């Protein structure tokens, strides 16, 4: 790098960083033991983070914004088609998909969580849990595949059925494989260069959000969802897979808490050299807090999943018992009709 660039107090680092990055980096001169060192800092200076800013500090991240609006809009359009046709669609499913599902996705990417997710690792971790657990569960409970099968024209419906019955869908929804992807992805994210790349590139950052939702959907949709998807297994096995997620989050959280190496260390340490250094917490304490959030939130949301799955299991058993009662009643009525009258 040319010496003039190193000595420039605010020279942008254009070649090493994606200009679309969420926090466009620049160099500042920093003198250590009489030697001038370039220091990475940020153009966007955010005020001190507080809990209130999660709900009041909003922005527009184009890709997640468009995705949330279009997906929610298509779902509501499908509900409107059913309503005009005179069919009934449960309100609970609509609320689960649009409000809890896409609403949580919108909140996680456009609210203060999205504004500070590259500034504080703990904020990113909250966002991670919402995108990988809350959003997939809510979308699955909304049964969008069932809605699509009931509203699409004949040809698109055949295409959708072909996709659902394809070999790729069967492989991706195979429960052990989906569980492995769900478990391995966070380790790959935080213990490889992937997370550093997401801090440096807006595109990688947004694709990480989509990836978290997609992997969560692959794992939880066949377990919790209502849609007729391949890979569905019996309720005992579903409960087992759900319970297995609890120690996984705890182990990953404890590992992050005990790390001596900072996750995204170059990025977060550089932020402390800029104007936000006056309020940014110690990066090691911040990482310890992030690991604790992953541990605690993972267990809490996992218990919610278990409660939802157990409720579905009970309802399924009660419905099966009612069907069996009706079958026995019909057999008994048929036997009475076929029985010869007394004295016949």
From TrEMBL:
Compartments where located: Cell membrane
Ranges annotated as spanning the membrane: 63-82, 94-113, 125-150, 171-190, 202-223, 235-257, 293-314
Q: Name one Pfam family in it.
A: Caa3_CtaG
Specify whether Mitochondrion is a keyword of the entry.
no
Q: Which UniProt keywords apply?
A: Cell membrane, Membrane, Transmembrane, Transmembrane helix
- Membrane-topology annotation of the record: Multi-pass membrane protein
Record-linked InterPro entries: Caa3_assmbl_CtaG-rel
Q: Where is it mainly found?
A: membrane
- CC annotations in GO: plasma membrane
**Protein's UniProt keywords contain Cell membrane:** yes
Q: What top-level branch of life does the organism fall under?
A: Bacteria
Q: What is this protein called?
A: Cytochrome c oxidase assembly protein
Q: Which organism is it from?
A: Nocardioides gansuensis
